[in-house]
Structure formats: structure tokens, C-alpha cells
Amino acid sequence: MSGKGKIARLETEIDKCRIQGLWDKAADLAKKLTANNTGVDTYIHFIIGECGLEQYIKENPPSEQNTSKAKDSLGEAERHLKLVSNENGKLSNEASLLLAKLHYCKGEYQSSLALFDTVSLDSLPNQMTTPRLLHIYAEAYAIKGYCIEKISPSNTSKYKAEKREEQIISCFERAGDLALLYLQEKEKTFSTLYASQSVGPIEELQENIGPILETAIQQSPIYYIKHGDLEKGIGRFRELLRAVESRFSQGLRLTLARQLAEVLLRGVCEKTYKPPSIKGDLVNPSPRKYTGDGLFVPDNETEEALLLLLIAEVIATREAVLNRSAEHKQAQNITFQNATAVYDLLAIALVKRAQFDRLSESFERAMKFSFKEFHIWYQFANSLICARKYNRALLILKECCLLRPKNVIVPLTAAKLCFEYLQKYEDGILYAEKALEAGDDHPMASRAYVALGIGYSLKAVEMKLKADRQTLHTKALNAFLKAHALDPNDYLSLFHLALQLAILRQIEDAIKYTRLALKYYSEHIHSLHLLVLLLSAQKNYEEAMQLIKAALEEYPDNLSLLLTKAKLEEIVCCPEEALNTCKKMLKIWKDFQEIDSDEKSLSLILHPMKVSEATDRSTFDKKSQANLLLTELTDRETGSMRAESIAASRMEKNLSEVASSGNGLIQSQPEAQRTWRLLNQIWLYLAELYLSLDKMEEADACVSETANLFPLSYQVAYIRGRVYEHKQKYQEAKACYENAISINPSHTSSLQHLGMVLHELDNDKLAEKMLRDAVNMEPTSHQCWFYLGLVLESLGHSEGAANCHATALELELTSPVVAFTVIPRLMQ
Predict the structure, then answer these.
(1) 3-state SS assignment for residue 579
(2) 156 Rama class: left (phi>0) / alpha (psi -120 to 50) / beta
(3) 557-562-565 Cα angle (round to 5)
């Protein structure tokens, strides 16, 4: 009895090792069994043959390249298994299936099929007692499918071909069902063994079901899709994913979810999409599946794809190997590649729905296993940019520069952030210089010089001293000339060169380069706008008006163009025409706000996954709206883009949020802030227009409207001062201008008008100080020079006054209707 008990215990230990895939240990235990006991010798032959085969496959996955090696290495395993299969005992079927697997490894597909015929797979028992038996039968179906696929058909009959395909897909589907059932049973078995402390924690066990089954499970839906039956392929993916989840099926679920998401994103549209149907399964034995009335059913292909990818992301981040030691390098690479594939698809799906915040959150979770992985870091940076988290994006891009020091795109992207969003001009120049380290032969060298020129030009505006400004403007001009020399056909370098020349008041040359830029890109809105301003600087108002009308036919909703058109109409036609244009701007803003705010908010409330549908339906030109990126922060009278002006805009925005805390619409979202600030610009211009028409009641109403939006804005204080000044209430006007300057010390218009109010109040000394400050801020403003001349004349400084008037006259000859700097310097 003691001998039989020892044999039973060894057999139990061997079966545990077989389930765990510990083949070396199982073979050692088998050799300890006594061959003198009846029936044990057959069992020993089976175990030794099985262990030899499985250990070989573990080290050498089946492939055509490994067939020769299999023939040399599997002789002993084949001998043991043949002994068992020929005895017709209870292990003979399993031995025959393993022999078929062995022949498949050797590339003997016909022999493998012949063995399957002797076993009769279709009559397999309904109740399989062990996970290992399930695994053997599942692999048998998979191998049978592979063998049929490998053997060329004997004839070209269409009927025979269809039957062959049906047989192959049937084998793969049956293999997949049995494999999932095996994983479910395996978890149940190990949960029981773990509870009895017979094995270690489940997390420590091998989860891989083997390359044969893993490929077969994926093959069944892919086979349908390859043969043109997309609907059945998607249905098969869904059936596999409906299987009740087990710890051992996590990696497989990740792969299937990712593959189905990719199929949905690439091959399915809204019209062809069919939601999944939840039906029972009559096949027996089959894996347990999720059923019930409360199951979530997606409404569209993007929603299903997102759901799958979010599930895959959870698995990928949980399964990622964090240990970066050499022995875990291969596992770490595999898990990282799986995760990267998921995140790339997630980026496609979420960008399509404009869900940039969610995307950046997903990439942030990926950071824990993406140490020094450039692709994920760069994608994270791009998602942060799209989510308008610019400061953080810049930090990530800085890290990307360290990971790929020779990649020119990264520092150029960082420079773009510094110039267009963060106003960190010095940092932007450093990034542009880093991009130039690649040399003038690099394809992006021209754009790197454009970035450098933009940085110099923007930094020049901040300089207090004339010599510093001139030096930086010269550097900017040289950079743009170099960019043009490297790529003579690049419209962007031509545009920036023209804009720089315009700022330096070299109008003729600026017009020449602007027309050349439009030759290469006739629809470039900023070149069109610049040419309008250049023509107005030449006092060619009629041609400027014709051009801006033509530009508005292409970009009818562009508020920046419309504001310039209104200024031209005020000069060329009459203020009433400009009023009509302002009314049109208000209507455009109203349409945009209703679509972009109300409809988007409603969509978000009704269905978070459909938040971008309002954007898709919007008739407002998003590209045109983007063109106001910088001009919405710009004083259009002077084009001030100083850091002080931007800081003041941010400060007064925060102050206004507190003062108008009851207006939730203005505070709700950054996009909403931006939208309402556009309205603020329109009201400010309308107020000035009404002042020019001497319509005080209407001007007061405009001031009230903009004060309701941003009560503590320096621009509101300025326009209120203009109203008081027009009413000759100079003390009240003085207080308003002082308030504006206290918020934004570089607001040239406030300094200029404060100077004139002080002049009216007979305080010419202080007026001179204010106007000299204004001239120093904006040396190309002819109004500031003219008013300074008036004050100096009043003070008895006739020579200084004459020089100021001469300068004002000279500048006025080349002054556009609005400052050239209202045109944003964009790197695109």
C-alpha cells in the first residue's frame, strides 16, 4: 500500500507540473516511478515523451525554419509516444495527438493529419477532466487547421475550396473555444491548489498558452477578414472577448481587444457598423461567457473601439514589466511593444473625438514603464499640447531632446510652444539654435532659421533700449534671409521675411516678398493679411479693400480680417460701413459660441464619448479661429506683444474671473475664456467706432458690455477713459488711464492718451514723461510722436517739437491701418 501511495503522490505531483508547464521537473519525477508496477511503464513513457516534446517547443517554437532541428531533436520523444499510442490504452489518444503535434513540428503535415483521423477529434468527450487534456485537444484542433492550410488543395474546384476554408476556420474556432475554456479551468484548478498551499501564488505561474494556440485563437477572426467577411470576423472577435475573464487570459485579451479596435477604426464606418448582439452559446464544451440584461452595448464603432482600447490599456499598464535588469529585458521589450501598439491606437481614437485630456492622462499612466522610450514621451508631449497644457508639454519635450539629441523636430516643436503659447522667447531661441546644430544640409534647416528669426523678432519687442531692439531686428532679418536662401520656394520663410521688413518699414521689399510667398501658397491667410496692411501703408486703400474682400471670400469667418476690413471701411467708405462689418462679426461670434459652447456642453452632458460631434457639425472655420491665437491678446492699435502686456492680460483675466464670478460661462473652460475674449475685442472696437461717430450712448453701452465680461481688464479701463476724454471729463479720464497703466504698464495707447489728458490739464511736464514712455515702447507709432511734438511745443521746445513732427510725418507715410504685429508669427 505504501508503494501505491507513493506512486499516486508522484502522479499527482507530475500532473501539477504538467499544468504549470514545468516539463523538466515532470520528467525527473516520472523517472522516479517504479517501472515494475503494472501500467506505470506506459505512463512513464507518455510523460517522458510529452515532456521532451513540450520542452523542445518551449525553446524552439514550431516554424518552417526549425523543421530540420525538430527532426534531429525529437527522435526520443517520438519513440516514447509511439509506444503509448500503439497500446490502445487510456493514454493512447493523448499520445496520438501529441505525435501529430510532433510531426507538425517536423513539417510532416500529411502524417499529422493521418494521426488526427485515427483519433477522431470531432467525437471528443463532452466532459474533459483536466486543464491539461483541454490544452492538448485545443492544440490538436489548431494544428489540424494549420496542416490543412499548409497542404495545397488537390484540385481547383470552387466547392472543394469552400469546404476546405470552412474546415480550416472550424478548426481554429474550436481551438479558440477550447483554449479559453482551458484558461478558465486552469485558474479554477490553481485557485484550489493555492488555497491548499500546494502551489505558489497564481501571479508567479506561467501564463503563456503557447505559440500554437495563441496564433490559432487570433487566426479565426483574421481568417474571416482576409477572405472578405468583415462582419463574421468582428463577430468572432466579440465572441472571444465575451469569454469570462481569467488571470491567465489577460495577455490574450489585450491582443484581441487591440486587434478588434484596429479593425473597427480602420475598416468600419458609421453606416456599416452593427452593434454586438448578446446570444447564448450551444457549443459544448465551450468557455463560460458574460451574459445578462445589464451588459453594456456600444452605440457606434468609435465607442466600441475606445472601450476595447481602454480595457487593453488597463491590462497593458498592469502587465508591464518594470524590472529593467538584463534577465527581464526580453519580457520588458514585449510588454512595452504591446503597450505602445495600444497607445498608438488610443491616440487615433481619442484624437478623432478631440478627447485630448483623456489621451494625455493615458500617456501619463504609461510613463511608469517608458523610461527613456522616446516614442511614448513624444506622444505624451503632443497630447499635452493638444490639451493646452503647454508648460508641462515643454518639460516633456526637453526630456525628448535628451533622448534624441539629433532629432530636429523636437526642438522646433519646443520653440513653437515658447513663441506661440508661453512667450518664453529666450528659451525658444535656444531651442531653435539646438535645431540648427544639425547643420545647413539638414532638410529642416530652413525652418530652424525661421524659428530663430521669429525668436529674435519677438524678443526685440521686449527690449527697452533702441540699440538692443535694432540689433535683434537685424539678427531676425538675417535669419529669415538665410532661411530663404536655403529653401527659396518655402512660402513660410518668405512670409516671415516680408513681415520683418514690414516691421522695419521697408515697405517695397516687404510687398515683393509677400507676393512671392503668395505665389507659392496663394491661400496663406497671414500673407494675404500682411499684403492688405502693406497696401494700406502705401495709402493704396482701394486695392487693399479689394484684396481683403477677396481674402474674406476664402475665409469668411476670420475675425482678424474682419476687424482690419472695418478699419479700412472707416477710412475708405464711412463709419456706418464699418458698423455693418462689426454687426457681422457679432453674428459670427454668436453662431460660433452657440455651436462651440452650448452644443458641445449639451453633448458632453448627454454622452461624454460624443463630445466632439458639435465640433464636427460646426460651420465655423476652426482654421480661421486659430489664426487669432496671438491677436486676441494684442492691442490692435499698437500691436503690443510685450511680455508685460501678456502678463497683464493673464492678471486681469484672473481678476476679472473673481469680479465676474457669477458668470459661469466665462470661467468654465479655457476655450470658453478664449471665445469670450474675442467678443471683448469686438465690443472694444465698436466703442471706438461709436466715439468717432459721436454716438456717446452707444459707446457707453459697448463699454458696459465689455465691462460685464472682464470688469478689471486694462482695455476696459482704457476705453472708459476714451469715453470720458471724449466728454471732456479729463479728471475721470485720467483716473481710468492710470488704472489701465497700473495693470499693464506697457499699454501704449493708455500712455499716449494719458499724456494728452495731462496736457489738457496743463501738466505738460508729466505729459511729456508719459509720451516719451509711449514713444520708447512703440517707436513706430506716429500718433505718439505727433502728440509728443504738441506737448514739447507747449513747453517751448520748438526744435524738439519740430523733430517729433517730422518723425511723425515720416512714420505716418508708411503706417498701416493697424500695426503689422497684429499678424501672428506662427511656425506653420
Answers:
(1) helix
(2) alpha
(3) 145
C-alpha cell at 410: 523636437
569 φψ region: left (φ > 0), alpha (ψ -120 to 50), beta (else): alpha
- Residue 277 reports pLDDT greater than 90: no
* Radius of gyration for the alpha carbons in the chain, expressed in angstroms and rounded: 38
Residues whose CB is less than 8 angstroms from the CB of residue 563 and which lie 6 or more positions away in sequence, other chains included: 585, 636, 681, 682, 685, 818
Q: Under DSSP, is residue 561 helix (H, G, I), strand (E, B) or coil?
A: helix
What CA–CA distance (Å, rounded) separates 396 from 76? 57
Place of cell 464636427: 616
CA–CA dist 786, 775 (Å, integer): 10
Q: Determine the average pLDDT of the residues in 654-678.
A: 55
How far apart are the C-alpha atoms of 755 and 789, rounded to whole Å? 12
Asked whether the bond before 745 is cis by omega within 30 degrees of 0, the reply is: no
How big, in percent rounded to 5, are the helix, strand and coil portions of the chain? Answer: 75, 0, 25
Query: Number of C-alpha atoms within 13 angstroms, CB side, residue 613?
Result: 15
pLDDT greater than 70 at residue 815: yes
User: By CB neighbour count within 10 A (0-12 exposed, 13-18 middle, 19+ buried), where does 273 fall?
Assistant: middle
State how far the Cα of 813 lies from the Cα of 804, in Å rounded to an integer.
14
For residues 100 and 207, what is the distance between their CA atoms, to the nearest angstrom? 24
203-238: b (≥16 Cβ within 10 Å) or e: eebebebbebbbbbbbbbbbbbbeeeeeebbbbbbb
d(CA 383, CA 357): 8
Assess contact for 263 and 225: CB atoms under 8 A: yes
Are 477 and 509 in contact by the 8 Å Cβ rule? The answer is no
> Tell me, what DSSP letter sits at residue 821?
G
Helix (H) or strand (E) holding 572: helix 559-572
| Pairwise CA distance, residues 182 & 339, whole Å | 26
Q: In this structure, are residues 529 and 554 in contact, taking their beta carbons and an 8 Å threshold?
A: no
Q: How far is CA 58 from CA 32, 45, 54, 480, 574, in A?
A: 24, 20, 6, 62, 86
pLDDT digits (tens, 9 = 90+) for 292-318: 777 788 888 888 899 999 888 888 888
* Rounded-to-integer distance, Cα 413 and Cα 344, Å: 20
CA dist 127 and 152 (Å) reads 35
Nearest Cα residue to 499 out of 463, 465, 461, 556: 461
C-alpha grid cell, residue 114:
493521418
What are the residues whose beta carbons fall under 8 Å from the beta carbon of 708, sequence distance 6 or more? 660, 663
654 CB-contact burial (10 Å; exposed 0-12 / middle 13-18 / buried 19+): exposed
| 153 phi/psi in degrees, rounded to 5 | -65, 145
Only one residue has cell 458639435, namely 614
Q: What is the pLDDT of residues 351-386, one digit of tens each?
A: 888 889 999 998 988 888 888 889 999 999 999 999
Contact assessment for residue 231 and residue 225, using Cβ atoms and an 8 Å cutoff:
no
10 Å Cβ neighbour count for 311? 19
pLDDT at position 661, please?
A: 46
- Cα–Cα distance for residue pair 604/609, rounded to 1 Å: 8
Which grid cell sits at 125? 468527450
* Terminal CA-CA length for the chain: 87
- Report the amino acid identity of residue 134: L
Task: Give Dmax over CA atoms of the chain in angstroms.
Answer: 130
Cα(781)–Cα(793) distance, rounded to whole angstroms?
19
Q: How many CB atoms lie within 10 A of CB 365?
A: 16
- Reported as a single tens digit per residue, the pLDDT across 791-810 is 999 999 999 999 999 999 99
Helices and strands in the chain, H and E counts: 40, 0
**CA dist., res. 42 & res. 212, Å (int):** 27
DSSP annotation of 244:
P
For the record, the C-alpha cell of 268 comes out as 468600419
Compute the distance between CA of residue 75 and CA of residue 78 in angstroms, rounded to an integer. 5
